[in-house]
Amino acid sequence: MKRPKTRWIVIFSILVALQLIVLLQSNGTFNPDDAQGIDKADTAWMIVATAFVLFMTPGLSFFYGGMVSAKNVISTMLQSFIALGVISLLWYLVGFSLAFGESYYGLIGNPTTFFAFKNVGLAPHPDFAPTFPFLLFALFQLKFAIITPALITGSFAERVKFTSYLIFMCLFSLIIYCPLAHWTWHPEGFLRQWGVIDFAGGTVVHMSAGFAALAGAYILGKREQSIHQPANIPFIILGTGMLWFGWFGFNAGSALAANGLAVQAFATTNMASASAMITWVLFDALVGRKISAMGACIGAVVGLVAITPAAGFVTLSQSVFIGFVAALVSNLAVYYKQRTTLDDTLDVFPCHGVGGIVGMILTAVFAKDVGLINGEFDTFNHHLMALVIVGVFTFVGSYLIYKVTGMLTQLRVSPHEERLGLDISQHSESIKNPDHIGTAA
To answer: What are the tens digits of pLDDT across the range 414-438?
Structure first.
């Protein structure tokens, strides 16, 4: 057996220490009597919705994996998939408490409120899960926390060192994601107190991922070979189908009940995605590009992104319009990004960042009773302020996290490792030619 590198000894030692802390913090066994009085329909739906949202991360893995070059498929897919493990443990230990614990001035949760899921059991919670087990709410929110850093990976695909990505993912989740979730979804969060409405994560998930992706692309710089042939278009189609399917849990599940609001969010989610898909491919044809499978898939995902903050607040016709506008704006953003020196590998900012911005603005325009079309300006103004705050906080915060990560370990692979491909250089695995697999760097 090879002697392990010092960094892995340190990381594994931290894992062992955390295991001991968690054991000492053990809450004992769950008491089934605590679940008395829950609404069985709401509980059943939230279990299904939670599973749907988890399904999105493997879907994203295929979606991104199909887009990169053949020598980077496994590494790109693993960057999404590994978040299932890393963020689950982090969320259980302290992330959930930072996001939904006792509020400090509407900015962050008390890390000890729900440390290691203390007091997170089968009984409902009046503020977060009044009709189903509080533990189920924590698990539902976990799936959102998992996919957010996974979304960012598309911006620095094909050149990031796996160790540095793991460090960045942990720091981003604790320093950026948890505060944003608290601001937006905690009853005392300052954005929620302002009246900012984000049904299922336009700011918390998509804008944060988009601006963090923008910072990552800027910090890591251009790839040596920035033009590549997507490795597997069927992977992209499969991933899109999995994302679309899972998004029903993402949005309809955010109703937190098996009710009419969930049905409304389910319907608006589907229609916005359909509208964006068709708009994207027809606009491509209009400007002289061929209609492509990848374009159809990207358009569908942009529609899903844009409807996320609005899903429970708008009508079907408004959701179709949101998908239409988001597809046009993101398509143009992708085009103009390609004319710059910024190397956002899989266009995370033009699609998720810009799509999230469009969705948040149009949510404030169309939201029932409080939207701009009803003559209400407060919600619209607060949404514009929130967009600036979230954008600056996420970009600057992520920029500093990348810098700190770079001080702790090498952020980018060497030119040789990049030419070899991250599958072999980082993981000693390859989809191309197993005979040529070397030792991981």
So the answer is: 999 999 999 999 999 998 765 544 4
Vertex 252, ends 375 and 249: CA angle to 5°? 145
Q: Which helix (H) or strand (E) holds 286?
A: helix 260-286
Provide the token pair at 162. Answer: 């796996």
Residue tagged 């189908």 (tokens)? 241
Which helix (DSSP H) or strand (DSSP E) does residue 108 occupy?
A: strand 108-109
Give domain status of residue 340, yes or no.
Answer: yes
The CATH number that applies at residue 272 is 1.10.3430.10
Q: Do residues 152 and 216 lie in contact, with contact meaning Cβ atoms separated by under 8 Å?
A: yes
SS3 29: coil
Asked if the structure places residue 126 within a domain, the reply is: yes
Instruction: Give the number of residues written for the chain.
Output: 441
DSSP 8-state assignment for residue 228: -
pLDDT tens, position by position, 80-136:
999 999 999 999 999 999 999 999 999 999 999 999 998 899 999 999 999 999 999
Contact 76, 64 (CB under 8 A): yes
Q: How many folded domains does the chain comprise?
A: 1
Cα–Cα distance, 78 to 429 (Å, whole number): 11
Residue with tokens 């729900």: 114
Q: Are strands 108-109 and 103-104 parallel, antiparallel or unpaired?
A: antiparallel
Is 21 inside a domain boundary? no
> Which pTM was predicted?
0.93
What is the pLDDT at residue 438? 47
Partnered with residue 104 across adjacent β-strands are: 108
In this structure, the number of other CB atoms found within 10 A of the CB of residue 7 comes to: 12
Terminal CA-to-CA distance of the chain, rounded, Å?
A: 16
- Determine the structural domain holding residue 191 and report its residue range: 37-429
Q: Give me the residues of the chain with pLDDT under 70, please.
A: 1-4, 22, 24-29, 33, 433-441
pLDDT (tens digit, 9 = 90+) per residue, 244-288? 999 999 999 999 999 999 999 999 999 999 999 999 999 999 999
Res 434: pLDDT: 54
426: number of CA atoms within 13 Å, CB side?
Answer: 30
Contact 292, 67 (CB under 8 A): no
Name the burial class of residue 330, with classes exposed (0-12), middle (13-18) and buried (19+) by CB atoms within 10 angstroms of its CB. buried
Dist. CA 75–CA 441, nearest whole Å: 13
DSSP element (H, E) containing 104? strand 103-104
Residue 26 lies in a domain: no
Phi, psi of 346 (to 5 degrees): -115, 25
- Only one residue has tokens 């599940």, namely 253
User: For residues 245, 250, 253 and 255, what is the CA-based torsion angle, rounded to 10 degrees?
Assistant: -130
